[in-house]
Amino acid sequence: MRAEGKGMANKLKQTEQVAESETPTRDEVAVTVAADADPETAVAGEAVGGDQPATDAEAGTEAAAPVNENFKWYIIHAYSGFERKVKESLMSRVAAYHLEDKVGRIEIPTEPTTEMRNGKKYTIDRVFLPGYVFVEMALDNDMWHVVKNTPRVTGFLQTGDQPNALSEAEVNAMLNRADVTKEKPKLKLKFTKGEQVRITDGPFNNFNGAVDDVNEDKQTLKVMVSIFGRPTPTEVSFANVEKAEE
Asked: Domain limits of the chain?
């Protein structure tokens, strides 16, 4: 009986050893779960649980786009009066050839100008450097051919065989002329001495008179008006007169 009890104890001990050997360890469970999980989920879990720093996208910030250090300004010659068409055509060709990363700004030098049409004033943006288009780009063989083959483009502003590259300061000095004139648009009007005009504003509104002097720089006229039968000079701006009807 004692022998049978001892035998039974040995069998129980062997059974426990087998059970322990078949029970997976903590590390084995982790490996099994990772193996059975979806690969993308497993990788994501590893990244979150690891010590790797979060990327900009994970932190919710967007990395700034790098600036092309090869960008320089160039001037291209265009048919006079077709500067805007050239700009549109060039932008379309750049997109068609997938060269957007090689082109920055494309500028046309303009200034506000007021014109008189049928007695009404209209303010328009007038090109003050006809035939020139400013292009900021990383010039290489591909861009050279794209620009040269753009309709109504006759070539680059260049010395010898090399297009001239301009600095930002040089371009701003030319383009900023438009900023200076935005506050006071110029009137595209021509007056001559002795011409009859009608004043449209001010104390002499609706008075007719003859032009005695023209100041193009100040855009003013000295007009001789009749007051009590006597000719009296008065200074008015181009914007406050119109040509008298014949």
From this structure: 2-53, 72-186, 189-243
